[in-house]
Amino acid sequence: MSDTTAVSDSLSSSPLIGAETGFGVEEQPTPIRASGFFALLAGLASVFCLLGTPLLVLPVIAILLGLIALRPSDRGRPIGTLPAKIGMVLAVGFGVCGFLMPWLATQTVGTESAYFAKEYLRLMARGDREMVMEMRKDHINRVSPGTPLVTHYEQLEAEVRAMEDAQGMSPMENYKEDDCVAALEDIGGDIELFQVGSARMYTHFGEQCVETNWNNHTDPFTNDIIVTMAFKIDAETGDRQWYVKRCTWDQEQPVAESIY
């Protein structure tokens, strides 16, 4: 009797499975978003976009992966959302820096080139021929500081004329034959120059050049004067050393008529 009573007591104390009690529901596992971890890796790799604008694709990839990882879920907060957020923040930070740094550098180069181009034209109008000729040279080939420029070019002219087999014109004679020189010297040092349009930057045989157009405010020229500046990096100081690569009148290119 005691065994039967014990069995009946244990059965009465065990939970019943039926309509009244229902069935137990297993908890769903927390989802894992692998895209969040890939977004973090792409965000860390976005630091390389500081090396060049083509690598700005890395922050874009990181942001897209982060958005995929942060999509809503019905099973609670997925694993990987925190790495996704960190990756997106890194991507935005490095992406903004990667875009602004080249843009600011371009603006700085354009401002510097416009300043030296304007000074070059002012010196030309003022008749400082020796200084103008020095600005046409790169910093390596210029006369050493402290050397009187007038004396240097007078000696150079005398040496050229003394050469029996000299052919062509001397540098100073070539300078005097320049049409831009004659037009600017006729106006004089009071010339009021203004820049026409914005600077145009391009690379020519690995050398970065900046081209600007100029005209006279009081008595405008028929055509603008185009000054092309280039620079070389000083190995000692790391600064940009500008020089004038070309100065000429803006000649409109004729366009041939179409024949049908």
Element-level helix/strand string? HHHHHHHHEEEE
Question: Main sheet?
Answer: 4 strands, antiparallel
**How many strand elements?**
4
Q: How far apart are the first and last residues' alpha carbons, in Å?
A: 119 Å
Rg over C-alpha atoms, rounded to the nearest angstrom: 38 Å
Query: How much strand content do the residues show?
Result: 15-25%
Could you report the average pLDDT, rounded to the nearest whole number?
81
Q: What portion of residues is helical?
A: 40-55%
Strand order of the largest sheet: 1-2-3-4
Secondary-structure-derived class = alpha+beta
Task: Give a verbal description of the structure.
- This protein has 260 residues and is of the alpha+beta class.
- The chain has a domain at 109-249.
- Helices cover 46% and strands 16% of the residues.
- The chain contains eight helices and four strands; from the N terminus they run ααααααααββββ.
- It has helices at 2-13, 34-45, 57-69, 81-126, 129-135, 149-162, 171-176, 179-187; strands at residues 193-204, 207-216, 225-233, 240-249.
- A four-stranded antiparallel beta sheet has the order 1-2-3-4, with helices on one face.
- Strand 1 and strand 2 (207-216) form a beta hairpin.
- The chain starts with a helix and ends in an 11-residue tail after the last strand.
- Mean pLDDT is 81; it is low at 1-14, 16-20 and 253-260.
- The chain crosses the membrane at residues 37-70, 82-105.
- This is DUF4190 domain-containing protein.
- It comes from Crateriforma conspicua.
- Keywords: Membrane, Transmembrane, Transmembrane helix.
